[in-house]
Amino acid sequence: MSGPRGPFVALAAAVLCISFGSILVRLAAAPPLAVSFHRVFLASLLLAPFALGPLLRGFPRLPARDRLLLGASGLSLAIHFATWIASLSYTSVASSVLLVNTTPLFTLGLSRAFLGESVPRVVSVAILAAMVGAGLIAVGDWTTGTDSLYGDALALVGAVALSGYHIVGRALRDALPLGAYVLAVWSAAAVILAAIATTSRVSLVAYPGRTFAVLLALAVVPTLAGHGLVNRALRALPAPTVSLFLLGEPVGATLLALAIFGEAPTPWTLAGGAVVLGSLALVVRTGAV
Predict the structure, then answer these.
(1) How many CA atoms, within 13 angstroms, populate the side-chain half-sphere of residue 7?
(2) SS3 category, 119
(3) What pLDDT does residue 116 have?
(4) How close are the terminal C-alpha atoms of the chain, in Å?
(5) More confident residue, 261 or 4
(6) Residue 138 near residue 98, CB atoms below 8 Å
(7) What does the pLDDT look like over 238-252, one tens digit per residue?
(8) Residue 4: what pLDDT?
(9) Cβ(164)–Cβ(71) below 8 Å
């Protein structure tokens, strides 16, 4: 994909791949912990041939603090996948994906709270507006029962956990090459999820071949291909442009859920989603993310 349009084609393909994440989770027909584990475990196996060498060379030279941060990053990612994937068992794809995509706002808020980083006033306004949007989504889900609200809460926890993963990742930006860092964090997350699944007596292997085929697709399409294409686009396009394009994920996931599951978003979800996406777009335009 060369030429002036190449990066935009890659970015559009990335959004499409990532939009399939929630759909494949639903199609897997397995417990959330099993789906979470296999998403990062299978992705780690596929990445290992390219990143294991740099990881084995770089990890022994890491100071103890950085090794602890790698573990914290893996824990954050494990919590993100476990809670967000579980949310899809309780609430709609539209609500879940919209709420988990508030991650950039939580990242900015946590950066201000724990790292002392300044946040422009317009970003603070956007964060408040996004919370109003989340409230509108919750009002709509209230009419379908408390299960949907529980799913909304899980999606928000997933957003907070992913923001923690992003913040820790900043501290390790120069500690390891990107591929080695990703492999280390994914592997740590897989170990943590396997431990939680074993403690909770959730089987990781007793599933039909169709389920494992969907789990493999989950590791390949949104995880490796989607995020790989995002990284490729970032080499040629400004980060705000990439972030703005990625706001298409909730739209893509909602349309796919409508086409595949017949799951139409409620008017409240549409209204709240518009507010959330508008808030995120405002933050992206400021260059804060």
Answers:
(1) 13
(2) coil
(3) 67
(4) 26
(5) 261
(6) no
(7) 666 677 777 888 989
(8) 57
(9) no
The answer, yes or no, to whether residue 37 has pLDDT greater than 70, is yes
State how far the Cα of 11 lies from the Cα of 228, in Å rounded to an integer.
10
In order of 28, 95, 140, 275, the CA distances from 271 in angstroms are 30, 11, 10, 7
Higher confidence at residue 188 or residue 111? Answer: 188
Residue 50: C-alpha distances to residues 54, 164, 171, 179, 181 (Å):
8, 26, 23, 8, 12
Of the candidates 111, 97, 39, 33, the one whose C-alpha atom is nearest the C-alpha of residue 269 is: 97
Token pair in block for residue 56: 């084995």
Residue carrying the six token digits 């990053």: 73
On the CB side of 99, CA atoms within 13 Å amount to 34
Tell me if residue 140 falls in helix, strand or coil: helix
CB 150 within 8 A of CB 88: no
CB–CB of 39/276 below 8 Å?
no
pTM: predicted TM-score of the whole model, two decimal places: 0.88
Distance between CA atoms of residues 65 and 166, nearest Å: 17
- Tell me the pLDDT of the chain averaged across its residues: 87
Instruction: Compute φ and ψ for 32, nearest 5 degrees.
Output: -55, -40
The C-alpha angle 86, 92, 96, rounded to 5 degrees, equals: 60
Residue 204 has pLDDT above 70, yes or no: yes
C-alpha separations of 110 from 5, 124, 132 in Å: 36, 12, 19
The rounded distance, in Å, linking the Cα atoms of 289 and 280 is 10
Handedness of CA 28, 88, 43, 280 (dihedral sign): positive
User: Nearest Cα to 212, choosing from 220, 224, 202?
Assistant: 220
Domain residue extents for the chain: 6-286
| C-alpha torsion 183→186→189→190, nearest 10 | -90
Nearest Cα neighbor of 94 from 130, 129, 141 is: 141
Evaluate whether 221 touches 24 at the Cβ level (below 8 Å): yes
